[in-house]
Amino acid sequence: MADGGPIEPGVKTLDRVRPTLPASWYYDPAHYARELEAIWYRDWLCVGRAEALPRTGDFTVVSVGTQSVVVTRSAEDAFEAFHNTCRHRGARLCRTDAGRFRNGRVICPYHTWTYALDGSLVATPGRFETDDFDAANYTLYKVHVDTWRGFVFVNLAETPASTLPEFLGSETDALRNWPLESMRSVHQEIIPLACNWKIFWENYNECYHCPRVHPELCKVMPVYREGVFDAADLPGWQPAYDGDKGFGTVGNGAETWTLSGKKALPVIDGLTAREIEDGIAFASFTAAMFVVGHPDYVRSVCVLPTGPESIELTVDWFLPAEFEPDEDDVKSITELPMLVMQQDGEVCELNQRGVHCLQHEQGVLMPQEYRCGDSTNTFAQGSGWTRRNSGAPIVASRLQPRHDLFRARNLRQSPSGLKLGVTFAAKRISPIAQVAENSFNMPPAIPGTDME
Structure pTM? Predict the structure, then answer.
């Protein structure tokens, strides 16, 4: 696509430039507080894998904005989630990020109020009896929890706007043939990143930066060299077969996402010939998760905001449960994604620092950044910034999928020179961000969006 060339009819790219969100929305604490209330406390969020809680009483603690949530296995194939808050006077129940509730009891470290794994209050040692106290009125504050193919999700809304299957929608179809339920994580990275969560998703939604930032990836995904995700984004594209949607696929003899482009592991059973040939399939779930399927492995990326200008990523690589990888196997499937994460992390953090410019009120989207344009309206409406619906729950939407993410911190050096984290690393919960008071005052109109 030539610089400044005309956009041909029928191509998905924009036919005009469009504005980004206001620059302050990427760092303003008050706007971040509104987003927590309107999106992160109302959407379904992935908080880990069922396999990470194998025994009854195993638990993990997850921080979302100002909220701390405990997820535990209460019985085989059953999970409970509740706020990490005692019903007595509000003390935190868990002082560690993960562990096990022995004997199936959750005990407050302050006054020893004791709860069953379903959240019911079963003991209040030392309490003087009164006629007006009913333990049934003091169960733990429940959080909605559900699972999808081995992934555990929570929803902090009192009444979720949708069920988990409704929220995930048809996006899950892209991975129907990968055996996600029975796969296991063979490597995990916990990656803090100094950027607003929307900058992360905007980077995910455009490949305009790919030729400059990801030369190694462009060798595996040749369409990225054109600054677009999909062949269908290019002028003059025509379907090559019935049902061809023009999605980006591996090319130049590549088979999967590795530095060599070649598979070092067996092909996963059950995939179609087309899925093996394409080499990649995406499923994205706004705004907290995406999953990428390859012929030989799967990886997932879960995103949680830790402040107005910071996020934490949990990245897992999955293989079939029967496969026992050695160090070289793990290296082969992590090298390229980790390199891409580091490259993306650098530019996302540059973007975050740059939006503080006093004269930069908002940016501009180029034609091939049309997916960012879609997300601009999603983020604006989801944050309550519409004249029709100030502060109402966001409707589950789909950010179009792409590739991987960000730069790691406190990682060891591998023999190849890439920075890799510790296999099966325990999840680290970042400090809870201080959030400004929530207010749904109307902002100025944004030219070029649905908020004009």
Answer: 0.83
287 preceded by cis ω (within 30°)? yes
Domains of the chain: 1-43+176-436+444-452 (3.90.380.10), 45-159 (2.102.10.10)
Rounded Cα distance, 34 and 335, in Å: 37
Q: What are phi and psi of 307, to 5 degrees?
A: 170, 175
- Strand ranges in 133-179 using DSSP code E only, listed in sequence order: 144-148, 151-155
Tokens of 236: 């003059």
Helix (H) or strand (E) holding 376: helix 370-382
Q: Which two tokens stand for residue 238?
A: 């025509």
Sign of CA dihedral 203, 180, 168, 384: negative
Residues of the chain below pLDDT 50: 1-10, 385-452
Q: Which helix (H) or strand (E) holds 167?
A: helix 164-168
Quick one: what percent of the chain has pLDDT higher than 70? Answer: 80
Enclosing H/E stretch for 281: strand 281-285
In this structure, which amino acid lies at residue 125?
A: P
Are the beta carbons of 45 and 65 closer than 8 angstroms?
no
Q: What is the pLDDT of residues 379-401, one digit of tens each?
A: 666 655 432 333 323 223 333 33
- Looking from the CA of 49 toward its CB, the CA atoms found within 13 Å total 25
Question: What does the pLDDT look like over 28-47, one tens digit per residue?
Answer: 999 999 999 999 999 999 99
Helix (H, G, I), strand (E, B) or coil at 414: coil
Helix 370-382 vs helix 197-204: crossing angle, to nearest 10: 150
How far is residue 291's CA from residue 299's CA, in Å, rounded to a whole number? 6
Q: Report DSSP state, residue 142.
A: B
| pLDDT tens, residue by residue, 220-234 | 999 999 999 888 888
Q: Measured on CA atoms in the order 247, 252, 253, 256, is the torsion positive or negative?
A: negative
Separation in Å, CA 246 to CA 228, 233, 235, 236, 238 = 11, 8, 12, 12, 8
Q: What is the pLDDT of residue 239?
A: 85
Rounded Cα distance between 140 and 85, Å, is 7
Q: At what angle do helices 197-204 and 327-354 cross, to 10 degrees?
A: 120
Structural contact between residues 113 and 140, judged by C-beta atoms closer than 8 angstroms: no
Q: What is the dihedral of CA 236, 239, 244, 250, to 10 degrees?
A: -60
